[in-house]
Amino acid sequence: MSHLFGPVVQQGYVVPDVEQAMQHWLARGVGPFVFVDIKDFPGQYDNSPIMAQMQAGFAYCGDQQIEVITPSLDHSSIYKDYLEQVPAGGLQHLAFWVDNIDDKLAELDHQNVGHRVWQRYGAPPDYRAHAYIDLTDAPGVMIQLMARSDFYDMLFGALAVAAQSWDGVSDPIRVLDPGSGSLVPRP
Fold this sequence. Notes:
- By secondary structure, this protein is of the alpha+beta class.
- The chain has a single domain, classed as 2,3-Dihydroxybiphenyl 1,2-Dioxygenase, domain 1, CATH 3.10.180.10.
- It contains four helices and ten strands, in the order E-H-E-E-E-H-E-H-E-E-E-H-E-E.
- It has helices at 18-26, 78-85, 101-110, 150-165, and strands spanning 10-14, 33-45, 48-61, 64-71, 90-98, 115-121, 130-135, 142-147, 173-176, 183-185.
- An eight-stranded mixed beta barrel has the order 1-4-3-2-6-7-8-5, surrounded by four helices.
- The chain is globular.
- The termini are far apart.
């Protein structure tokens, strides 16, 4: 467990092909995945506004969430930067829950933990849903701070329950039904 952030809750892999990455994990018995096609998610990259475009898959392996992301290469993001540096893809970030991103960043400032905020997501102008930081004295795998919310509790809770009861075969890739909030087989 990190003394700065708490327990790791997610391993985030940026990959050139999200479908292939989900199949990689499914072949190892990790699943089911929930697939999300993200369009125009507001954010900020290196202090400039962006509209994120990516495809992502999420699954659980025990208490660790596995995320695989394929970004649009037509839009600026930390994910696009990563694939330009590591074309085969790999572990790009570790995620941690926080109650409030701005409070956590202020705490890091107070503790003189050198860091740079590279990207944020959420409603403008504050973008308080996610923040991706890198430590300036020891750059490498980024840290994602995820603000707790009812939506993420619902989505990730449903995914954790699905993983616990999954038979390893049925409906390996699912989507979120926005009407019911349940995970349903991907069409």
